[in-house]
Design a protein that fits this description.
This is DUF3854 domain-containing protein. 20% of the residues lie in helices and 32% in strands. The chain has nine helices and 25 strands.
């Protein structure tokens, strides 16, 4: 199990798959490997932190896998204040282009208008010569050390000495804006997410190499699988789950080739002189695109738009789309459990009514139901704001953005009266 040291003594960020949610990153485990603070799977035991709500899960010490623990050493530095991040990221905006491929994706797949794409200031993280972009950003600023403490940038030792460059996978970059229009972070929609093996039961395996796609366009890979004492090399295809049962009908194992995580924070916490995106995690406020040309950095959004009612969804692009479809301010948060991060921004906006609008296919899951219950409890204790839930039939669209694109509006049901 790969772990990374955190600021909290005795706690490590899980770099491998979390034993609770199965995802990589953000979740934490103690030194004894008996308690997990999971960011995604809810439990009755939880606490709110600067990176969002963390749920405690207790592991059976006798059932902890006897795997080698690798502690990743980090020379990361503390993240700079918002005003500094905004200054650097706005300089970056002037140096990064938006590729034709990503522009087409936003127009054809996301149904944005051309002028809206430009107003939203999406960018492309290139694959090569990132050090040149970092150097150009420095030239726009006052000092070579201005990139220190800015997530995404890190200092690397080169042939002729140290130099600044940028971390992250190549892909579409989406800016995160505060209530005063400061850009304080980015997410990258990576072009080619890594493949992963999703395995259950008596099986171990690894991906040896990715192969050309099949006739249907699905990704394929050569994999090494260990089943009991046998090691087999097989070719697996995405979306083709293999399940094995015993002669008596009992489940033995399953294996599936899956595309890994598509959206990643632009961060450099694992790099020398880099910085983590956390402490706290950014949340994104989207305003209707006509407001953007008038929204000066430092101005509260409620000076431009009535923010007495604010909508909340997951993800920045979805929030951008919803803001235009609803003509309302919309927050994009990193997950349903991150609602505590909204408290102070909502207070600053003078919000009186919050409408949560999560995807239609996740509203009825136990984890989301529990998160909504905890959300109601949290806001009932901390504020006098009204809380509502937006709902719709999934046949009209999976997400709020899809629903609005299809010409429908959700039904809004009250969760908590003011």
């Amino acid at each position: 199990m790969k772990l990374r040291r955190t600021k909290h003594d005795g706690w490590y960020e899980i770099q491998a798959r979390c034993p609770i949610c199965g995802h990589k990153g953000w979740c934490r485990i103690n030194r004894e490997l008996t308690i997990v603070h999971c960011m995604r799977v809810a439990s009755d035991d939880y606490f709110d932190s600067i990176i969002g709500r963390q749920f405690r899960h207790y592991l059976d010490p006798n059932a902890v896998p006897k795997t080698k623990v690798e502690i990743e050493m980090s020379n990361a530095v503390e993240k700079k204040p918002d005003y500094h991040l905004n200054r650097v990221y706005r300089a970056l905006l002037k140096e990064l282009p938006l590729s034709p491929e990503h522009f087409t994706h936003l127009l054809d797949d996301r149904n944005f208008e051309e002028k809206v794409v430009r107003l939203r200031e999406y960018r492309t993280m290139p694959t090569q010569e990132r050090y040149k972009i970092a150097k150009s950003v420095i030239n726009r600023l006052s000092d070579n050390s201005d990139l220190l403490g800015v997530p995404g940038f890190f200092c690397q030792e080169g042939r002729y000495g140290p130099y600044w460059t940028m971390a992250g996978g190549a892909g579409l970059m989406i800016p995160f804006r505060t209530v005063t229009n400061e850009i304080t972070g980015w997410q990258i929609r990576v072009d080619n997410p890594a493949l992963e093996l999703d395995m259950e039961g008596a099986i171990k395996g690894e991906i040896l190499e990715e192969l050309p796609r099949d006739e249907s366009g699905n990704r394929t890979a050569k994999c090494s699988l260990k089943i009991q004492d046998k090691i087999l090399e097989v070719i697996l295809t995405e979306k083709d789950k293999k399940v094995c049962y015993s002669k008596s009908g009992q489940f033995v194992f399953s294996v599936e080739l899956k595309q890994g995580q598509r959206y990643w924070w632009w961060s450099s916490g694992s790099k020398d002189n880099g910085s983590s995106i956390g402490g706290p995690i950014p949340i994104h406020l989207a305003l209707p695109s006509p407001c953007l040309k008038f929204w000066e950095t430092g101005d509260l959004a409620n000076n431009l738009l009535d923010c007495s009612e604010v909508w909340v969804t997951e993800g920045p692009i979805k929030a951008d789309k919803a803001a235009d479809g609803l003509l309302k301010p919309v927050f994009g948060i990193p997950g349903v459990g991150a609602f505590s991060l909204l408290l102070e921004p909502l207070k600053k906006l003078g919000c009186k009514h919050i409408v949560f609008a999560y995807d239609a296919d996740v509203i009825k899951t136990p984890e989301v139901e529990m998160a909504l219950e905890q959300c109601v409890e949290f806001f009932a204790k901390e504020t006098d704001m009204k809380l509502s839930l937006a709902m719709w039939d999934i046949s009209y669209g999976k997400g709020l953005d899809d629903l609005l694109d299809n010409g429908y509006t959700p039904h809004v049901s009250t969760l908590l009266e003011a």
